[in-house]
Amino acid sequence: MTHLSVVGCGNMGGALLQGLARSGDHTLVGCDIDADARAAVADYCETTDDLAVAAEADYVVLAVKPDTVSDILPALDLEGDQTLISIAAGVSIDYLDDLTDAKIVRLMPNLNAETRNMAAAVTGAVDDTVRALLDEVGEYAEIEESQMDIATAVNGSGPAFVFYLIGAMADAGVDSGLDEKQAETLAAQTFKGAAETVLQSEKSIDELIDAVCSPGGTTIEGMELLWDSDVEADVGAAVHAAEDRSREMAAEFADE
């Protein structure tokens, strides 16, 4: 049984607590000074506003805004046999290392952790316990720290981009007569099923597209329009805009 605390019970910290609580195999603590944030996770874990209580855990997730890390992490006063898992965007391992004696893991998760469908990028002192925790809440990739900015964009910001695309498909359904709930269900489930197919199939993305497109059929008509459009470039530009902002944030901390 892993003793894990989450400091910062906002959207992402709360999603991790909710996802990990489903197994019932861990001692979980949520720490936040905001009473509403604590109340939001009270069904999944013990809650506290005391950093000293959170610091008793073997694994401490730092899920706070980057500009508060320099105040909160020294106050936790973690020791060398503990592991800090930081999800503070743009805050490097070197920066964190100056503030704590703990082993350091950098994690970029996403909100899908609450449904155990998270995509995460991780680097640093990743041990088998960290891997097991991540396995419980989704899929993950171990990467180099130099790749964290693009990972932040692809899987960290990515859910918002996917939500946007689901909304666009659902709106098209509504325009042609489906009610809003029907259209949203069909669009969202289609994305869910397509994503699972990508993960489980040995075929490439292009091969999977070809498998759906019958000559002279409906899908090829839509794909021809997409291939002739700027959609691929626009989606790529959105990802790179998020990547650039992550890089800017990292540079701000490096200059401190």
Number of domains: 2
Main beta sheet: 8 strands, mixed
β-strand amount: 15-25%
Q: So how many helices?
A: 12
Q: Please give the number of β-strands.
A: 8
Give the overall shape: elongated
Q: Write the CATH architecture name of the largest domain.
A: 3-Layer(aba) Sandwich
SSE run: EHEHEHEHEHEEHEHHHHHH
Low-confidence runs: none
Please bin the fraction of helical residues.
40-55%
Rounded mean pLDDT score: 94
CATH class of the largest domain: Alpha Beta
Strand line-up in the sheet with most strands: 3-2-1-4-5-6-7-8
Distance between the amino and carboxyl termini: 38 Å
CATH superfamily annotation of the largest domain: NAD(P)-binding Rossmann-like Domain
GO cellular component, one term: cytoplasm
Protein name: Pyrroline-5-carboxylate reductase
Main location: cytoplasm
Binding site for NADP(+): 63-66
Question: How would you portray this structure in words?
Answer:
It is a single chain. The chain has 256 residues and is of the alpha/beta class. The protein folds into two domains: 2-146, Rossmann fold (3-Layer(aba) Sandwich); 158-241, ProC C-terminal domain-like (ProC C-terminal domain-like fold, Orthogonal Bundle). It has twelve helices and eight strands. Strands 3-2-1-4-5-6-7-8 form an eight-stranded mixed β-sheet. Strand 7, helix 6 (128-137) and strand 8 (138-142) form a beta-alpha-beta unit. Helix 7 packs across helix 12 (231-254) and helix 8 (158-175) packs across helix 9 (180-200). The protein is elongated, with a radius of gyration of 20 Å. The two termini are 38 Å apart. The model has no long low-confidence stretch (mean pLDDT 94).
